[in-house]
Amino acid sequence: MKARVYVSMKKTVLDPQGQTIQSALNGLGHKSISGVRQGKFFEMDLAAGMSREDGAKELDLIAREVLANPVMEDYRVELID
Amino acid sequence: MKARVYVSMKKTVLDPQGQTIQSALNGLGHKSISGVRQGKFFEMDLAAGMSREDGAKELDLIAREVLANPVMEDYRVELID
């Protein structure tokens, strides 16, 4: 089973990296970009034969405790096939 | 209009950061994780009134020329509403 975990800053938290990318893009002539927020994602392979339910539970735990900082970041888990 | 651009290492390129995360997760007891690859994504706001077609074209250009390194990385553009 494959899965993706997406981690991004909460909407209420300032994202200076995204702002820098936005002003760089505007400076390069891409004036239509009015906002950028950056995030990261993790593509994971899970052991074969794991049930979707167990996989989702495990990934939620991993996302919350290891990959994301729940104080500042939101995460989203997506199971693929 | 909102859009997301996903950038990740090509499958054929080694991803040491992903490998490190995988061995850390295994060390923490998450033995079911057999592979991790890390990527980044950019959530973009586009100027109102832009057509989907123009938006897709603009974002493809931005992804190819600014956000991703096409030698080592793949990208994917996703338009939202």
Report on the architecture of this protein.
The structure is a homodimer of 81-residue chains. The first copy, chain A, has 81 residues and is an alpha+beta fold. Chain A has one domain: Phosphoribosylformylglycinamidine synthase subunit PurS (Mth169, Chain: A, 2-Layer Sandwich), CATH 3.30.1280.10. Helix content of chain A is 35%, strand content 37%. Chain A has helices at residues 16-27, 52-67; strands at 2-9, 33-46, 73-80. Chain A has a three-stranded antiparallel beta sheet. The model of chain A has no long low-confidence stretch (mean pLDDT 95). The A-B interface holds A 6, 8, 18, 21, 24-25, 28, 30-47, 50, 55, 58, 61-62, 66-67 and B 6, 8, 18, 21, 24-25, 28, 30-47, 50, 55, 58, 61-62, 66-67.
Brief sketch in words of this structure:
Two copies of one chain form a homodimer. The first copy, chain A, is α+β, with helices and mostly antiparallel strands and 81 residues long.
Write the layout of secondary structure elements.
Two copies of one chain form a homodimer.
Chain A: E1 2-9, H1 16-27, E2 33-46, H2 52-67, E3 73-80
Antiparallel strand pairs in A: 1-2, 1-3
